[in-house]
Amino acid sequence: MTAVDGIDFDIDRGEIVGIVGESGSGKTMTALSILRLIPEPGKITSGRILFGEKDVAQMTDEEIREFRGNDVAMIFQDPMTSLNPVLRVGFQVEEAMAAHKRFSTQQSRDRVIPLLQRVRIPAAKDRVRDFPHQFSGGMRQRAMIAMGVSNQPSLLIADEPTTALDVTVQASIIELVRDLSRELRAAVMLITHNMALVASLCNRVIVMYAGRIVEEGPTRSIFKNPQHPYTWSLLRSMPRLDETEKERLISIKGLPPDLGRMPPGCKFHPRCKFRIDRCMTEEPPLGEVDPGQMARCWVLMKNVQDPEAVAQK
Amino acid sequence: MSAEAAQPTQPTPQATITAATDPTVKKPLLRIENLVKYFPAGGGLFTRNVVHAVDGVDLAIASGETLGLVGESGCGKSTLGRVIVRLQPATSGHVYFKDVDLTATRGEKLRRTRQQIQMIFQDPYASLNPRMTVGDIVAEPLKNFGVARGRKAEQRVQEVMRVVGLNPNFVNRYPHEFSGGQRQRIGIARALVLNPTFIVADEPVSALDVSIQAQIVNLMEDLQSKFDLTFLFIAHDLSVVRHISDRIAVMYLGKIVEIGPGNAIRDKPLHPYTKVLESSVPVPDPDLEAARKPILLKGEIPSPVSPPAACRFHTRCPIAQQICSEVEPPLEKKADGRFAACHFPGQL
Question: Which fold has domain A16-202?
Answer without folding.
Answer: Rossmann fold (3.40.50)
